Amino acid sequence: MSGGALGIEIVLVFFLPLFLLHRYGHFRKQHPLVLFGTLLSWYLCFLIVFILPLDVSTTIYNQCKIDNEKPRSLTSSDPSNQTSNSSVFPTSTPKVCHKPWSYIPDGILPVFWRVVYWTSQCLTWLLLPFMQSYASSGGFSIPGKIKTALIENAIYYGTYLVIFCSLLIYLAAHPQWQLTWQGLQTISIAAANTWGLFLLVLLLGYGLVEIPCLYWNSSRHGYLLAKTYFKAAKLSKEKSDAEENMDDAMEEVANVNESIGYGHPLRISIDTILRKCPMEIQEKMVRPNTEDSEEESTQRTYPSKRSLVKLHKQVICAGQRHSQTQVQWAILLEEAFHLEDVCKNETNTSHQFVHSFLSSQPPGWLGKYLYTPTIEWYWECVLRQWCYRMLALLLSLLSVAVVWSECTFFSTHPVLSLFAIFIQLAESDYNYLYIEMACFLTILFLCVCVYSTVFRIRVFNYYYLVPHHQTDAYSLLFSGMLFCRLTPPLCLNFLGLIHMDASISHQQRIETAYTTIMGSMRLLSFIADGFYIYYPMLIVLLCIATYCSLGTRCLNLLGFPQYISQSDDLTSELVEEGRELIRRERRNRQRSEDRESRKRGWRERYGEQRNVRRSRNGYSELKDNDSPSDNSDIAQLTRRESGDHTGLLQDVDTTSLDPSDSPTQRYAGGRYLSLASSRTPIFNNV
């Protein structure tokens, strides 16, 4: 299967970043270049993660072939010593090197890694920062947005230029180093990997502790519910702030809309800003299509082009933040209602899960026949806790193994890195499937620890990945930049953990194609023998700080509320506030459902009575004479129907009715203006 596994993985990996982009981005609203840049950056990073195990197995197979060729070459080169050598040392038969199922021919991987690596580096250091400024610009034309992006990135690119020129001067002045193209590439790669490793250790130290703790706490329903109340209190404040910012922005837009008429040159910019406003705001701001007179135009003060650009950016940011908080609030309410239902159903003796509110969507085939209320009760109230606890213990063991290996991977005699021991045991038997699975699971765990931190971290309102298609363009592009800067040093660090990086392990063996593209780090000995070896040991201190919640406590002291424990005064206050908010939303939803059920009952009852009256009216027209008994029956029917309507009026809770939502409106004196949408009386047919 020559290169077949490589082609299959290249195709299948594409669907993973596509799924993530569909979850966090919006294909219809966001710019195609933003979506393409984010998708390409994520795709290249995932390719490195999934293809690297194939590179490791191929390298081990090539090393086996080289080891089998060494004894033959020594014997054939010195035939005079063949007899003496065979008499002293027994002839050892070479091992049979079985070709792995995912073997990649020579020459393919170096080209593949070169294309993937340099494309990702061009994206993260050149294109994505420019696209970030372009997407967040408030300009009204493409040249205006490009100009704004260049101005904002002048300092960014200028800093890189100063660092690059300093390195060139240092290389030119150093007598031992020759200024060659290969040396410049190695120094550039070393600089990028050093920056990425600096950030990688910080994120990895947080994720190695936070992810096992997250799954362990997910098995505690009381903890989850209290933290959800805490989030509700914080999100309620953010939602109110977003609504205030939206109102302020809409007020400024209304003022500008009134001051600029249709004949003014800036009217095109105003229309562009209006298109970014919600539809109900656009309908309110429609002004008559008349040009202003000369007196009115001279008396009014018109805004400048720069102020309109600033207002345009403000409207975009306010609209995005308002939409994000609304969607997050709806999701948080569903989560809180579900957790409250779980706590209530734990004491349910019938072992059937009962929901407080019916789902708006009808249950599918899976929900009808497989995920029944009984199975749901056992999963939510019994099995889920134990599954999460077992998963948390397994992840904790992996975290301990990673921390130990990060502190001891430089030791080759004896081998102390656990992952290096596992790979060497599999290499002795040439079990390529085990080697690839072990490499993939290890890299996957490291990526989950790092990437989950990237997806969960929040830098105020500038960077925040929000699911359900609510992430803005700036955050999507910034996540692509982080992925491209973190993935190469992460994979290089993994190769050091399994002793496949010769610049760190100092072993005389064949290198992987990935490390050959990275270049020989021995050119910069203070980085290869110093920073790359001793800096990862800092991960121990970061794990201890994360376990003790030092960062959370510092943020809490700085005025950014974080959930610590319910013994904290600020945390307990926010938990109580969130509990009251959830209760209020539950009452509102219950009232709305009761109102809808009443509407549905009225509609069904009135519809049946109308059908009965229509059928009886048609039957009376067919008869030639009306008997007194028929008239008495009709009178009884009329009294019965009027009695039914009186009962309906008495059962209605007037406090839960909203006159604007219901077609039947009640006024003072207990009299209804109408009982149906039509203006004809209900009993006319009778």
From TrEMBL:
Coiled-coil stretches, from where to where?
232-259
Keywords attached to this entry: Coiled coil, Membrane, Transmembrane, Transmembrane helix
Compositionally biased region (Low complexity): 75-87
The entry's localization annotation reads: Membrane
Q: Which GO terms describe its cellular component?
A: membrane
Topological category with respect to the lipid bilayer: Multi-pass membrane protein
Gene Ontology BP, a term: adrenergic receptor signaling pathway
Q: Which Pfam families match?
A: LMBR1
Family the entry assigns: Belongs to the LIMR family.
**Protein's name in the database:** LMBR1 domain containing 2a
